[in-house]
Design brief:
Strand content: 15-25%
Largest sheet: 5 strands, parallel
Distance between the termini: 23 Å
Strand order of the largest sheet: 5-2-1-9-16
Shape: globular
């Protein structure tokens, strides 16, 4: 793909955003009329992450939550490819593109493999739905919010299926308070989900055909379908041989300052789950908006003291429990049931996210 020349004879600064997830997509959309923006992503679509579990049990839900990048990036350039290296002025992709930048935003999130095209992703959801529908028993490994929400989605839509959730911790969802975690556990049990704590599965020694799984305590579980919902490391490996190698901490996170610039660099930002900030979709969006504001200040020649300071303000945490219920942890209280469910579970913030991208919340993309 040919490089698009900057507008106004080079007046516009070149901003390259690497990663089109919840943070990268928003920052590219926000800056596209203020800079010569290039978004580099291995996929031709952005997927609203909070909706992916619902899409496994209801594939039609993905029609609104899997969005072509081109639908919101109307004045920027999209390169569908994987960034493999950077210098202090260019990004190199696996296809051989070399894209020059004045400002770089790293937003590659967590490691993971996804289909390249929106069409393939929608097909994948339909396949997973059919596998869930045809299975009598399902095993979920990992009791963080992903494992809990997936178990709840399946238990709600397919109450006749045997669902087992295994978690190596002493309680579910260690990132949330014990009271909220216990409420989620009781909800799952009320839906006949078997929850096994302080146990694990050796995932490195499983065959694809295996339908019987042995836990760390020696118990054998039969399941027609396995879902692994354990945490994934930040996608920072590609930076380890670059000039940013010393900006990665021992947890594989990219270290950022209060303005969301990579520590020690004036023109390189990092946002979203790759950073050493709180890893949650809401905070990733807030980071994107702060970084976009700061990039505008710098591109317009403003003083650094005018840059916005990012400070995470943990407020509510809501974990969806099927279509109607949720457990919500607020600063001074914890709720479960229909009220927090009305906030998140019905639409999983798809409406709000589409609006932030400038898209009609009700329209299905084609």
């Amino acid at each position: 793909m040919e490089e698009r020349q900057p507008e106004l004879g080079g007046v516009w600064k070149r901003v390259v955003v690497v990663g089109g997830g919840v943070a990268g997509s928003l920052i590219a959309k926000t800056l596209q009329f203020n800079a010569d923006v290039t978004l580099i992503d291995p996929k031709d679509y952005f997927e609203i992450p909070y909706a992916s579990l619902r899409s496994k049990v209801e594939p039609a839900f993905a029609e609104r939550s899997v969005i072509y990048h081109k639908d919101y990036l109307t004045n920027g350039r999209l390169i569908v490819g994987k960034a493999i290296s950077i210098s202090n002025s260019q990004v190199l992709t696996s296809e051989g593109h070399q894209i020059s930048y004045d400002y770089l935003v790293v937003a590659t999130g967590h490691s993971g493999s996804f289909p390249r095209t929106r069409r393939e992703r929608l097909t994948e959801f339909r396949t997973e739905h059919e596998e869930i529908r045809s299975a009598d028993s399902i095993l979920i490994v990992g009791g963080g919010h992903v494992g809990v929400e997936l178990a709840a989605e399946i238990a709600f839509d397919f109450p006749q299926k045997k669902v087992t959730l295994i978690h190596e911790g002493s309680r579910l969802m260690e990132f949330i308070g014990a009271k909220a975690a216990d409420k989620a556990l009781q909800w799952l049990k009320s839906r006949r989900v078997e929850v096994m704590l302080r146990q694990s599965i050796d995932l490195d020694n499983l065959s694809e055909e295996s339908k019987t799984f042995e836990t760390s305590s020696g118990e054998r579980i039969r399941a027609d379908r396995l879902f692994v919902c354990t945490g994934k490391p930040p996608a920072s490996d590609w930076l380890k041989e670059t000039f940013l190698k010393d900006s990665i901490d021992r947890f594989e996170n990219v270290k950022v300052d209060e303005n969301l610039r990579v520590k020690g660099y004036k023109n390189v930002f990092a946002v979203g789950d790759i950073t050493d900030e709180i890893k949650q979709g809401y905070f990733a969006q807030q980071q994107a908006l702060v970084a976009a504001k700061n990039l505008k200040v710098l591109m317009e020649g403003g003083q650094e003291r005018k840059m916005a300071i990012y400070k995470a303000r943990p407020g509510k945490i809501i974990v969806s429990l099927g279509r109607q219920d949720a457990v919500a942890q607020f600063q001074y209280s914890t709720w479960i049931g229909l009220v927090p469910g009305m906030i998140k579970s019905k639409d999983l913030f798809v409406w709000k996210t589409r609006k932030k991208l400038g898209l009609d919340p009700r329209i299905v993309d084609h």
